[in-house]
Automatic annotation (TrEMBL):
The keyword Ligase applies. Catalyzes the conversion of acetate into acetyl-CoA (AcCoA), an essential intermediate at the junction of anabolic and catabolic pathways. AcsA undergoes a two-step reaction. In the first half reaction, AcsA combines acetate with ATP to form acetyl-adenylate (AcAMP) intermediate. In the second half reaction, it can then transfer the acetyl group from AcAMP to the sulfhydryl group of CoA, forming the product AcCoA. This is Acetyl-coenzyme A synthetase. The lineage of its organism: Bacteria, Pseudomonadati, Pseudomonadota, Gammaproteobacteria, Lysobacterales. Mg(2+) binds at residues 539, 541, 544.
Length: 651
């Protein structure tokens, strides 16, 4: 077997055509850190301001003098930037291309003009219901056009939206409503995913019976499936009844650049969700700039990000970034494997998608089913592929590049967080050579550094904790209602810098490799081993579909390696295979990474956004089922039960 390449150079044609080509990156990056005021003042010109900012940045990460302000005297409205300013040049262009759960449902093309009118009608309705600048509005909707309409209508009247993923339970809704004291909830009768109905309105009813939720005065209900729901008057109102007769223009609120745009609760992989607060000006500059540069966006692109609007990826890269850029953004209601595992590629062909952005978890799941379901489609329209959410195993990266992209399309591995508002590390496709498993280089203005446990900044080739030395415009400004938690969580571990919580390696070329969360790094006999590395070694075995690795207390080594392995469809977990996999990891990484325990896992506990919850797997490995902690954000809690049963059987 020949060794696959470790570097995938920028395709020559793209290097020549891309807005940011070879050489441009170094020049612009250099300028962005040498003279950030000039750089970001120029970047701000991409937006339409009601008052153009003259103060660009006012930042200090020092604890005694802490502040983060961008474009502090600027005024703008996010919805105007995403809608009104495109009306002259792109009024008839499709803003949102909606594809339903069932392929038989006709897709919808919502033009910028129509989207503008719909947003204005809802914005007027919100005002008529007493929603004012600064009020919080909870959005609990499926992936339908109204979810973008709702976000932008809130932005128009200056209300702070907080989107709760449509798969969350009543308890999760109640927690989030109580935390931010929202006044109004926008929901739908039901959601639809993979042919199943999700009782959204009933979940809201149950949530509003829980303590702490009586701030809610109104529930607006979109008729989506037409399923029967109970309406409690006067609290509950049908969306169409309140919205349809409203005027289709609406005076936008003047917002200061530092006024809040939204609160979004983090996905909860590591504990109690935090209300991450983003503001208006810096966020929108950063979301739109990164979206244009990282995906090499062009006017006629059809851009599809498969995330849910309930995650930050949906905020920045389905709604705000693409619409601020006047792009066509595809919104998909369904799931990758319904009605068949070819669905993604059928949608790509149907709508001639040119930019496709998804998560490693989806790529690995589709890879399990082999190449045939992909190869039955053309995918000739694809130009750029992206990934986000977790470290991508090189094996999965190569499959994505080689099979999905037919080896033609650059893959941009984008590292970022809810907290960062937009992409911080990624290979700009026309400028930076890609490496499977590496997010490569920082975006303009982003200054990553690798520090050791004492906080010493390591130079050159190094591995340790990833911090960011200075602010960027899309940075979160606070944890809603708990500014001290914001400072304690992100700025105390390494004073003077933002701590990401992720481990990272920088190679000899200066490219960055995220090794996983710092909590997930395992210390075996004094050697730091990234869980991502061991997982990638396991996934590179042809019979392994997915793997999750955690540390557990070990008498001699300090920590041992515990691996959970999901096999490819049709393979069986025999003792012989177990030995083969252990030997495979030894061969790939070395004896130090030898798994001490390997457990077959038919499924892995994941958050609703598809991330493996290693916190829970650690407890299972430790055989401490009573310490599992909060499991309400799990996609399928029954997975935990079956892993625990297996664990007990093996012990
Ligand atoms: P919580 O903070 O509540 O525990 P979370 O960290 O999963 O949840 P997100 O903000 O959605 O919530 O995820 C950001 C994290 O996802 C990053 O800190 C990193 O660990 C991981 N991540 C995202 N993109 C990448 C990527 N391209 N490569 C490696 N890791 C990534
Ligand atoms: Mg996080």
């Amino acid at each position: 077997m020949s060794t696959p390449p470790s570097v995938y150079p920028v395709p020559e044609a793209l290097a020549a055509q891309a807005a940011i080509g070879r050489g441009d990156y170094e020049r612009l990056y250099d300028e962005s850190v040498r003279d950030p005021d000039a750089f970001w003042a120029r970047a701000a010109q991409r937006l339409q301001w009601m008052q153009v900012p003259t103060q660009i940045r006012d930042v200090s990460f020092a604890l005694e003098d802490f502040r983060i302000r961008w474009y502090g005297d600027g005024e703008l409205n996010a919805s105007v930037n995403c809608l009104d300013r495109h009306l002259h040049t792109r009024g008839d262009k499709t803003a949102i291309l909606w594809e339903g759960d069932d392929p038989a449902t006709p897709p919808r093309h919502v033009s910028y003009r129509e989207l503008h009118a719909r947003v204005c009608r809802l914005a007027n309705a919100l005002r008529s219901l007493g929603v004012r600048k600064g009020d919080r509005v909870t959005i609990y909707l499926p992936m339908i056009v109204e979810s973008a309409v709702a976000m932008l209508a809130c932005a128009r009247v200056g209300a702070v939206h907080t989107v709760v993923f449509g798969g969350f339970s009543p308890a999760s809704i109640a927690d989030r409503v109580a935390d931010c004291g929202s006044k109004l909830i926008i929901t739908a009768d039901e959601g639809l995913r993979g042919g199943r109905r999700i009782p959204l309105k009933a979940n809201v009813d149950a949530a509003l019976k829980l303590p702490g939720t009586n701030s809610v005065e109104t529930v607006l209900v979109v008729r989506h499936t037409g399923g029967a729901v109970g309406m409690q008057m006067p609290r509950d109102r049908w969306y169409d009844a309140v919205v349809d007769d409203q005027p289709d223009t609406c005076e936008p609120e003047r917002m200061n650049a530092e006024d809040p745009l939204f609160i979004l609760y983090t996905s909860g992989s590591t504990g109690k969700p935090k209300g991450v607060l983003h503001t208006t000006g810096g966020y929108l500059v950063f979301a739109s700039y990164t979206h244009e540069a990282v995906f090499d966006l062009r006017e006629d692109d059809v851009y599809w990000c498969t995330a849910d609007v309930g995650w930050v990826t949906g905020h920045s890269y389905i709604v705000y970034g693409p619409l601020a850029n006047g792009a066509t953004s595809l919104m998909f209601e369904g799931v990758p494997n319904y009605p068949s595992v070819s669905r993604f590629w059928e949608v790509v062909d149907r709508h001639k998608v040119s930019i496709f952005y998804t998560a490693p978890t989806a790529i690995r799941a589709l890879m399990r089913d082999g190449d045939a379901p992909v190869k039955s489609s053309s995918r000739a329209s694809l130009r750029i592929l992206g990934t986000v959410g977790e470290p991508i195993n090189p094996e999965a990266w190569r499959w994505y590049h080689g099979v999905v992209g037919d080896g033609r399309c650059p893959v941009v591995d984008t590292w970022w967080q809810t907290e960062t508002g937009g992409i911080l590390i990624a290979p700009l496709p026309g400028a930076i050579d890609a490496k499977p498993g590496s997010a490569t280089r920082p975006f303009f203005g982003v200054q990553p550094a690798i520090v050791d446990a004492q906080g010493t900044v390591l130079e050159g080739e190094a591995e340790g904790n990833l911090v960011i030395l200075d602010s960027w415009p899309g940075q979160m400004r606070t944890v809603y209602g708990d500014h001290q938690r914001f400072i304690d969580t992100y700025f105390s571990a390494y004073p003077g810098s933002y701590f990401t919580g992720d481990g990272c390696r920088r190679d000899a070329d200066g490219d960055y490799w995220i090794t996983g969360r710092v909590d997930d790094v395992i210390n075996v006999s004094g050697h730091r081993i990234g869980t991502a590395e061991v997982e990638s070694a396991l996934v590179s075995h042809p019979k392994v579909a997915e793997a999750a690795v955690v540390g557990f207390p070990h008498d001699i080594k300090g920590q041992g390696i515990y691996a959970y392995v999901t096999l490819v469809a049709g393979e069986e977990g025999t003792d012989a295979l177990l030995k083969e996999l252990v030997a495979h990891v030894r061969g790939e990484i070395g004896p130090i990474a030898t798994p001490d325990h390997l457990q077959w896992a038919p499924g892995l506990p994941k958050t609703r956004s598809g991330k493996i919850m290693r916190r829970i797997l650690r407890k299972i490995a430790e055989n401490a089922p009573d310490q599992l902690g909060d499991t309400t954000t799990l996609a399928d809690p029954s997975v935990v039960e079956s892993l625990l049963r297996e664990r007990r059987g093996a012990a």
